[in-house]
Design brief:
With about 475 residues, the chain is an all-alpha fold. It has helices at about 10-20, 30-45, 50-60, 70-75, 80-85, 95-105, 110-145, 150-160, 180-200, 200-210, 215-225, 230-235, 240-245, 260-275, 285-295, 300-315, 325, 335-350, 360-365, 390-400, 415-425, 430-445, and strands at about 5, 255-260. The radius of gyration is 24 Å and the shape is globular.
Amino acid sequence: MTGVQIRLAEIIEALSKALDMTEGQPEGHCIRCCYIGMHVGREIGLDDVQLHDLYYTLLLKDLGCSSNAARICELYLADDLNFKRDFKLVDGSLTQVLRFVISHTGMQSGLAERFRSILNILQNGGELSTELIQTRCQRGAEIARQMRFSEGIAQGILGLDEHWNGGGKPNGLAGDYIPLFSRIALLAQVIDIFHVSGGRKSALTEIKKRKGDWFDPSLVKAFIRVSENDVFWDALSSSDVEAIVLASEPGQHAIMADDDYLDDIAAGFAKVIDAKSPYTSGHSDRVALFTDLIAEEMGIGFEARRLLKRAALLHDIGKLGVSNSVLDKPGKLDDDEWLKMKRHAEFSEQILSTIGAFSEAALIGGAHHERLDGKGYPRGLTADNIPMEVRIVSTADVFDALTADRPYRAAMPIAKALAILWEDAGNSHDPICIEALQRALARVELGDSKTRSFSVPVQTTPQVA
């Protein structure tokens, strides 16, 4: 087991940008919330231990955000990214909520279908809203714990949507019963959203309007004191805000951690990724498993396999930036939808490339849909430019996609999935990887009598350019 010098804040800052995508927010939303919330925390005199936990609560406040995306699409017949972005501008008043529901439900659907959806929401709105928020908050807290963050941080994420007057969700907590970190995070979130959309005056007007209803009055007063300094606003709007937040991490700035820690972070974010769609539940874990089976069969050493598994867990992180109206569409994607779908590889590389510890994951995330014959995306790379690591994860990815349920078809038997991989071997996927996968699956089956049997003829390995 090797120890590596990592900067936890650097990793979490970068990964928080994936959460911004899922919430339909401009890049850096969680980072700016961290900047805002930490100023409030210092203004009210939190100690270093409290500030440390507040720091990570703010960066990870949306950790469970992907878990309700599919349900939003289903209920509102809407693009979840635009829906979430616009809903954050609603103050919760009945008039604004009604206007939002009518203007955002089923706009691309037939009149009858749209009417039924609106009626369902109006009749069951409170129950549906609680369901969506409860799913999001509970999942976020669970993932925070998996990533080794404190219970204080988990509770801060769990209580994000509670309101000072008891009118929030999911538990209707009020006043000081709401975790302090949750109160600060919600305040910071609204400040950033209204500052980005309407400027300083808009942000201040909104928090004053919601003081005593949504927000702890003492925290609003603390922020108003902070806001009187022009330097605060200049930094918030500058391109340096990410560096400022990174430099302001409370306590120890560099953390010595073994590879197990990075594995836990990758596994935690894999849960965020796979929660985006009911059709991808467990996908990242299974791709990591198949990747490891292939790599082991090919004689790749433990440390290299570990890096591959980590990359496999994170290869689809860019899907957090794709609407579920595209991801879960049961029919064929149109040209515009297909372009949106293809961007997930670009997003994966973009997010992961800023994290030194995940540099290999960035390469694989950006190239896992490339083909040996140059007909893949996003760059149309040919065999000479596709490393074996990418070929391994790509094979594992497609194999899992074929053997799992999808919105447009049922899961295939293992034998049929392998046969499909062999049909295009040498053009799409590397036959060396397919053969290794087939041998590994046969070996696993022979070692476990409970494994569903399959029979696939041995293929002749074609030449690869």
